[in-house]
Amino acid sequence: MSASPSARATANSGSTALNLSHSAPLFLSAVRSFSILQLFSRGYLAPEYLYRGEISPQSDIYSLGMLLIQISTGEKNKSNTEDKCGAKFIEQVRQEWTDHKITSMYASLGAGHLQEIKRCIEIGLQCVEVDRKKRPTIKEIIDKLNGKR
């Protein structure tokens, strides 16, 4: 199938964007709906958004924290209608992911890598603080990931 004239012109001009204006509204609507459902069903949304409709950069930090925790621990948050923001999952990680568990789960790794995993879990837990004012900024997160703080 050949690209539309406007898509070819955009592609030929060196831009990576395609002109899909005829289907963009429908596509964007579907993406938004899918994205919101995916996030909502998996417990990535910050409590202030879920319960008060407030959204801010700290809401994104909350979502980032959930991702850091899940990637570092290998465990998934299974949110439900009673625990939409993953409070039980977060508490479970706080209680169970001690130095001993990290060492036993990642026994083949050296001390430096174990410290990195621990740091990622700690940063993730800071990011999912219920009080958004207690969550770190993205600069603080990057500094911590780089071992600066």
TrEMBL record:
Q: Which domain of life is it from?
A: Eukaryota
Q: What is the lineage of its organism?
A: Eukaryota, Viridiplantae, Streptophyta, Embryophyta, Tracheophyta
PANTHER family from the UniProt entry: C2 CALCIUM/LIPID-BINDING PLANT PHOSPHORIBOSYLTRANSFERASE FAMILY PROTEIN, PROTEIN KINASE DOMAIN-CONTAINING PROTEIN
Which Pfam families does this one have?
Pkinase
The residues forming the signal peptide are none
**Any one GO molecular function term:** protein kinase activity
Name assigned to this protein: Protein kinase domain-containing protein
- Provenance organism: Eleusine coracana subsp. coracana
Residues forming the Protein kinase domain are 1-149
